[in-house]
Amino acid sequence: xxxxxxxxxxxxxxxxxxxxxxxxxxxxxxxxxxxxxxxxxxxxxxxxxxxxxxxxxxxxxxxxxxxxxxxxxxxxxxxxxxxxxxxxxxxxxxxxxxxxxxxxxxxxxxxxxxx
Length: 115
Hints:
This protein is mainly β. It has one helix at 7-13, and strands spanning 21-26, 29-36, 39-40, 51-57, 59-64, 67-72, 76-79, 85-89, 93-100. Helices cover 6% and strands 45% of the residues. It has a 5-stranded antiparallel β-sheet, covered by helices on one side. A 4-stranded antiparallel β-sheet has the order 3-8-5-6, with no helix packed on it. It is globular and about 45 Å long.
């Protein structure tokens, strides 16, 4: 039987900060939950795929070359491929990331993602 999932339960089960926890896949997309706090990643670009951030709890910014977008609980943003960006998390945030398999690597996650 197909099982439902609760994102808050899934992200709360990922007890370590900055640890990507895969909750499922959708076609060739990874669905990872993550908790982060006091963290600013380097600007980076995903050349081959778009990326989606969904804010489950808390708030954070996604900075771009021309400004920033602030996300709070329930907000999501899709970042088109080829767009320079970086997440900025000042307080504890819990989020879902959706991206094509193979997009995440140590360089664009501050060294915290391990394939």
